[in-house]
Structure formats: structure tokens, C-alpha cells
Amino acid sequence: MVKKIFLFLVYGFAVFGILLTLIFFAVKFGLTNEGGIVDKQRNTFLAPDSVVEPSWTRGDEWAVLKEAIIRDQEPLNRAAESANISARLIVAQLVVEQLRLFHSNRELFKTVFAPLKVLGNQSQFSWGVMGIKQETARNIENNLKDKSSPFYLGPAFEHLLDFTTADPDQERFARLTDENDRYYSYLYASLYMKELLRQWQNAGFDISNRPEIMSTLYNIGFENSHPKPDPQSGGSEITIGEKTYSFGALAAEFYNSQELRQHFPN
């Protein structure tokens, strides 16, 4: 019996190790990335004063999400101030990440998120409420230090993500998945967008007034950010009800809507 238990444990750990290895390489080589779409028109992103109620605001998901975001106003604004970027732009990414989670996992929404009115905290392929991957987080950190990088923000930002322990990987994971204080989750997202914006500015293109482009870049990553004069919004497909959005389009629709504007103005 002892031998059987021993063999069971050995084989179990071996299978678990193989699964972890497969997951690591799947993430590393982009096999977990979702297929995306490119939006054909830009006119839907140019109406910040529109009073039309977006269709995604009519469900229980938005009612829950709205309340949870308002409770996080302080760490959101603190992160935005640290990175010197619009808090509303951070919230636009948060809205899309959370709506995608709420609508893709209905059972979890009904049993956990809705009753508790909390944000969904991811901890597998992407981490935290902002859905940041480990490799992306590392790139954000490295860009703060690398003076030769087109994403480099300057000496004032270099130490914002300095680690305080001898285990950066564990500390990074703890930062991004902390359910009690999401400041670091929002700070990583803020610096991520700030670095993307700086890359485009260095190339001579200002996209600071293009939330659909900023959000698309947030979704597709550093490696797919190629400054050019005629960028198009797009990104992962997100279906809410009977309507399918791109990541960039949905983020811009929130950004230009009247939703949460009293808490997070432009």
C-alpha cells in the first residue's frame, strides 16, 4: 500500500510538472493569445458628449462592475497620479477586462461576483483585475530602467516598481493579484500605457487623444506596437449579449460615454 501511494504521488507530481511546463511555453510563444479583429470605422470613437446609453450598460454585469469600480476610486487615482496619466483611461481597460470576464464565465459571475459586487481577480495566464501577463509586467519594469528603450519614461519613473524582497517573481505575482489593495495592479497598467504612448511620441505620433488606439495597444502588447500615421483600433473579440466588440472599440465606447464621468472625468 505504501509503495502504491508513493508511486501515485510520483506520477501525480510528474503529470503536474508537465502541465506547468506546457502552460509556460504556451504563454511564452503566444499560444494563449486570442484571435482579434480590426475596426473598419473610426466615427464611433469621436462622440465624447454622446448621451446614447451603450447596450452593455443595461445588464446586471455593469451594475455590479460600476459599484466595484467606484469603491476602487482611491487606488485608481493614486496610480494615475504616479504615472501621470488619465485615470479614466485606466478605467477603460478595467471595464473591458472585467466585462469580458463577467460575460465569459456566467456561473462565476452569478455565484461570486454579483453577490459580493467585487472585481474578478485573474491568476493564471493573465494576472489581477487588469489582466496583465507576467512577461508584459517584466517588460514594463525593464522599460523603466532601460534608457535606450523607445518606451523609456525618464529618471522620474525609474524606481516606481523597484522590488523590496529577494524574490521578484513572487513579489510581482503578489502585487498584481492582491485583492486588498489593487494599487500596483493599476500602476502596472498605467505605466504600460504611458510607455506605449511614449514610444509613439518618440516616433512623432501623438495618440494621447485616441483612447481606441491606446486600448488596442494595451490589448495586443509591446511586440505588436508599431508607430504609424494611420493606426486602426481592434484587438480581441468580446461578445456582450448579441453584439461583438473589439477590445479597443469597447474601451473607447466606455471612455466617450457618460458612465462614471463624475468619478473619472477625462
Would you write up a description of this structure?
The chain has 266 residues and is mainly α. It folds into two domains: 1-32; 35-256, Orthogonal Bundle (Lysozyme). 53% of the residues lie in helices and 7% in strands. The protein has ten helices and five strands; from the N terminus they run αβααααββααααββα. The strands form two sheets. The chain has a three-stranded antiparallel sheet. Strands 2-3 form a two-stranded antiparallel ribbon. Strand 2 and strand 3 form a beta hairpin. The longest helix is centred in the N-terminal third of the chain and has 27 residues, at 2-28. It starts with a helix and ends in a 10-residue tail after the last helix. The model is unreliable at 19-28 (pLDDT under 50).
Describe the SSE topology.
Layout: H1 2-28, E1 36-38, H2 60-71, H3 73-83, H4 87-104, H5 106-116, E2 122-123, E3 127-128, H6 134-145, H7 168-177, H8 183-202, H9 211-220, E4 234-240, E5 243-246, H10 247-256
Antiparallel strand pairs: 1-4, 2-3, 4-5
Shape: globular
Mean pLDDT: 87
Quickly give the CATH architecture of the largest domain: Orthogonal Bundle
How much strand? 5-15%
The count of domains is 2
Distance between the termini: 67 Å
